[in-house]
Specification:
The chain has 170 residues and is of the alpha/beta class. It contains 3 helices and 7 strands. It is globular.
């Protein structure tokens, strides 16, 4: 016989889960999934809505700092292959929340959030440089760490460990 087990809500993340559910109520297309794990809340956002969600969190919920923006390659065999991860912080409420956008290998495009936080400029350039994620509308999307003639994107899981070897017929 199955017993009804009450699931305890994590008191450390209860306010953030409520905030994420509020995002979903504000606009149902803004949130595809909410994950509450390890005292952190992650909200999955469709790429078409990332700028709107960021503006909403900044203006209505005081997430005034983009702490970090980075990429993740899940591997060539995974679909979607890439994640773009946004770590937001409120200097007023001291809360943190993570947003994730999933992108396919065939279409690794997402809109820039430099219009929301100017500091996104450097973070987006680094993610472009290392993973090849293209930030549409970015004011200066070019390599930031690697030489401009570098072949490929060094943090992709299919990038050779020793780089691309020059091809020789001899």
């Amino acid at each position: 016989m199955a017993e009804n087990v009450a699931v305890e809500q994590n008191p450390k993340t209860a306010a953030l889960v409520a905030l994420a559910n509020g995002l979903k109520q504000e606009n149902p297309v803004w949130v595809t999934q909410i994950v509450d794990a390890l005292d952190e809340v992650t909200v999955f956002v469709p790429r078409e809505n990332i700028v709107d969600v960021c503006w909403f969190l900044k203006t209505r919920h005081q997430f005034d700092m983009l702490m970090d923006l980075n990429g993740n390659d899940l591997g060539a065999e995974e679909e979607p292959r890439f994640e773009v991860i946004y770590h937001l912080f409120s200097t007023k409420t001291y809360q943190r929340i993570r947003l994730k956008v999933l992108l396919s290998d065939e279409d690794p495009h997402v809109n820039t959030v430099t219009t929301v936080w100017r500091t996104a400029d450097w973070h987006e350039r680094e993610t472009y440089d290392m993973f090849g994620v293209i930030f549409d509308g970015h004011p200066d999307l070019r390599r930031i760490l690697l030489p401009s003639d570098f072949d490929g994107h060094a943090l992709r899981k299919d990038y050779p460990l020793r780089g691309f070897e020059p091809y020789s017929l001899s």
